[in-house]
Amino acid sequence: MLATRFLLLFALLPICLSQTLRGGVLIDCGADVGLTIRGLEWLPDSGYISAGSSKIVAAEGLTETLHTVRSFPLQNNVFKKFCYEVPVDRTRKYLVRTTYYYGGVNGNANPPVFDQIVDGTLWSVVNTTEDYMRQEASYYEGIFMPTGKNLSVCVAGNTYTDSDPFISALEVVLLWDQLYNSTDFRSNALSLVARHSFGYDGPVFGYPDDQFNRYWEPFGADAFPLSNPQELAVSGIWNLPPPKVFHTRLSKSLVEPLTLPWPPGPLPGGVNYYIALYFADDHASDSNNSRAMDITINGVPYYSNLIRTPVGLVVFSNQWPLAGFTNLTLTPAPGSTAGPLINAGEVYQVLPAGAKTLPRDVIAMIDLRTRFHNPPADWRGDPCLPSRYTWTGVTCSYGPRIRVVSLNLTSMGLSGSISPSISRLTALSTILLGNNSLSGTIPNLSSLKGLQILHLQDNRLGGTIPPSLGDLQTLRELFLQNNNLTGRVPINLAGKQGLNLR
Question: pTM value?
Fold first, then answer.
């Protein structure tokens, strides 16, 4: 998995996400009060997460949003996720950006290495070690389509470290349909590898230059820069790049190839990439091909006979294979009288979007979580995905229909009641809720036709033992002792051969 890691000097870190961004949410993680920075609002994270603890970063020169983090105790390096849940429109796609600056908040010299997950999609490994050694913050960007009414953005423990995960800031920005709409976000997500404004040598810029607050980094200021301060109306250019990227460019005055080592650094092979390249020319063409050029990537033709125009254009690929170091070459086409140029570019790794647990199971698990007091911290997001994880007490089946098949919350310190929604988890074969402090009544479980084991012993359950338990034909263990129940076990269970009844 490619770690989409980028470097931001503190003085250059953009800290603004406008209230005018429709559908945008900016969260200052670990903060207990909101911040207004340059007239713009950052929200405290208490309304989006219930796990973890707030910690203060004791360092000088940080932007306001890096002064606090939310840290999540792993307790013996278990695979456990901690999720922010942000209300969204499930029919739209969103830019998600996570920002990290460690500050030694967990007592170790080096920051932890952990995973980040969006809904059921394993996004990337978060490794900020090199950035932190340079006293720099790290950010990651991706584009995702939600699978429900909340977008779950999670950090999760893995086997790389035993230190607690953390997060400094989270941004979720609604993107217009026009952006990146050649990608099927029902089956894919995009994880940013590089986004550059070519020939630009200033600080990283986002909003208000980019109305979606995408971050554009400088690239190649001393290669072949040529100022091009024209203001383009970009409404007709796919992905709506900010006009500022057309203020500068990399170019050659001679009619000869221009080769750029871009994106910087080696890329993992075996995966595909989304590539978008942006061009505009401030000179009118003398003929149809006078300003034409051919584009190759590592010698492979990417686009032939591209004719640049003053109004600007983008060429893109949805599924382009890359591996190792990459060279982007722009070559004047035969008959062209002008040298090559390029204004900006973006590269995303194409991720397979995670599958989704059966919606009725997700809804039931959410209701169970709200009825339990002190539920497991990792019972947020998709209860079964990513499949490499096993969240506390939850076992799932995988295949065309992903289902919750077992709950084991024995001795978890739970109180509250058992939600009737548990009957919606119709694939359950095992329910283990013993040795807690659960109260209320036992709900009707007759819809759980495959239930084999039901342990409710050593709680504070009351009311009558429900006759509907007699409908559970596959039941082979029923433990009810040490509760405040009245009535009798249904007679067809009491006399059932092979039933372990307590």
Answer: 0.86
DSSP state, 486?
E
353: part of which helix (H) or strand (E)? none
> pLDDT tens string for the chain (502 positions)?
334 333 333 223 333 343 445 568 999 999 999 887 766 789 999 999 988 999 999 888 888 889 999 999 887 667 788 999 999 998 999 999 999 999 999 888 889 999 999 998 999 999 999 999 998 999 999 999 998 889 999 998 887 777 899 999 999 999 999 999 999 999 999 999 999 999 998 999 998 899 999 999 999 755 555 655 566 777 789 999 999 999 989 988 888 999 999 999 899 999 999 999 999 887 655 555 578 899 999 999 999 999 888 888 999 999 999 999 999 999 999 888 888 999 999 999 999 988 788 888 988 998 998 899 988 888 888 888 887 777 888 999 988 889 999 999 999 999 999 999 999 999 999 999 999 999 999 999 999 999 999 999 999 999 998 988 888 888 898 899 999 989 888 877 777 766 777 7
Q: Enumerate the H helices of 270-337 as residue ranges.
A: none
Cβ 361 vs Cβ 97: under 8 Å: no
Identify each DSSP E strand in 409-446 by its residue range: 415-417, 430-432, 437-439
409: which DSSP letter? -
Chain centroid to Cα 169, Å, comes to 13
User: How many angstroms separate the CA atoms of 163 and 109, rounded?
Assistant: 11
Cα gap 118→46, rounded to integer Å:
19
CA–centroid distance for 282 within its chain: 39
Q: On the CB side of 469, how many CA atoms lie within 13 Å of its CA?
A: 28
3-state secondary structure 391-432: CCCEEEECCCCEEEEEEECCCCCCEEECCHHHHHCCCCCEEE
